Amino acid sequence: MSPILQIRPQGPRWETADPFLFCVHHHDHYPRSDGAFGPAASLAGRDVGQDFSGRDGWSMYHGDHVPGFPAHPHRGFETVTLVRRGLIDHSDSLGAIARFGEGDVQWVTAGSGLVHSEMFPLLHADRDNPVELFQIWLNLPRSHKMADPNFTMLWADRLPRAVFHDEQGRATELVLVAGALGELRPPPPPPDSWAAQPGSDLAIWTLRLEAGARWTLPAAASDGLSRVLYVFNGAEADVAGQRVQPTVGIHLRADAPVPLQAGASGCEFLLLQGRPINEPVAQYGPFVMNDQAGVMQAMQDYRRTQFGGWPFESAAPVHGTDPRRFARYPDGRVERAG
């Protein structure tokens, strides 16, 4: 029996399966900086403040000078942001700030309510400033939707990595953000995350296969899970005997191993796996609750409290010209990458 249940083409916003809400792959080829963290290029013809055009290979998103997402609220779910290239500047209503990238992961539990900004500062005036990231929205169960907000950094050098070689010596590299594989165990997720709940079997992995490389994705530790494998880079790949092209989402049986082989140019995959929460989902923009009453309450609470207010002068803060990655937590503790 084939481990493949369904293959679905993906648009800019990838469809996911419970407990995930969606995934976006931002890949922007930003030009040189103008010296003030924005692109040294004309913004004429772009819908500034709402630019998702991809014109010239990049977008401003909701930024008006610096690309990115100025202050905006969330309630009832989590964001997991994997930055593959470039730098992201985070600020939030808890008072936390961070500059992260180059393989780092930020995990934010919005819970009862959080306001944050995610800006893409362009630091280099002498060369291009590419940015590539995944942002994954992970649902929270009813019992944890009003948990205290939490901000966590998972630095690249602390994420487990493994390289497997096939019979011809061709390599497959695996990086674990969540979910163990044998003795490989990533840092723990935030305490109120669905990923932290016993039996969730949640996994977020990236896989990079060299040209022609073969590797078998092992069966999950338990059944009853959603399991989707996304092909996002490379010309083509073979998944359980079927040829696939980027960008598709391949829904898999969790209880079966899945043979993979890269095409002639190599390929990359993102795996999202977890036990479904199996609760109703009501969403209005950045609020994800179980019913419309919960969404209306979230809107009213945000209008009334601003989820604690915004402690920064700008809605789109950036953190200076120093490219070194760091995080300052709400209690004042400072971490530095590497």
Structure report:
This protein is mainly beta and 338 residues long. Among the domains are: 16-39 and 70-158, Jelly Rolls, CATH 2.60.120.10; 160-279, Jelly Rolls. Helices cover 4% and strands 42% of the residues. It contains 1 helix and 25 strands. It has one helix spanning 292-305, and strands at residues 4-9, 13-14, 20-30, 68-74, 77-85, 87-92, 97-101, 105-109, 114-119, 129-139, 150-154, 161-165, 171-178, 203-209, 214-217, 226-234, 237-239, 242-244, 248-252, 258-262, 267-274, 282-284, 287-289, 326-328, 334-336. The strands form 5 sheets. It has a 7-stranded antiparallel β-sheet, with no helix packed on it. A 6-stranded antiparallel β-sheet has the order 2-3-10-5-8-11, with no helix packed on it. It is globular.
**Largest sheet, spatial ordering of strands:** 1-19-16-21-14-13-12
CATH level-4 homologous superfamily of the domain at 160-279: Jelly Rolls
Gyration radius over CA? 20 Å
Strand residues, percent: 35-45%
The CATH architecture classification of the domain at 160-279 is: Sandwich
**Helix fraction by DSSP (H/I, runs of at least 4):** under 10%
In CATH's first tier, which class of the domain at 160-279 applies?
Answer: Mainly Beta
Total strands: 25
Helical element count? Answer: 1
| Average pLDDT figure | 97
Name the helix and strand elements from N-terminus to C-terminus, one letter apiece: EEEEEEEEEEEEEEEEEEEEEEEHEE
Major sheet description: 7 strands, antiparallel
- Poorly predicted sequence stretches spanning 5 or more consecutive residues: none
Based on Cα principal axes, name the global outline: globular
Which secondary-structure class do the elements indicate? mainly beta
Distance between the termini: 45 Å
Say what oligomer this is: single chain
CATH topology of the domain at 160-279: Jelly Rolls
Family: Belongs to the pirin family.
Domain Pirin N-terminal: 63-138
Domain Pirin C-terminal: 205-308
Organism: Ramlibacter aurantiacus
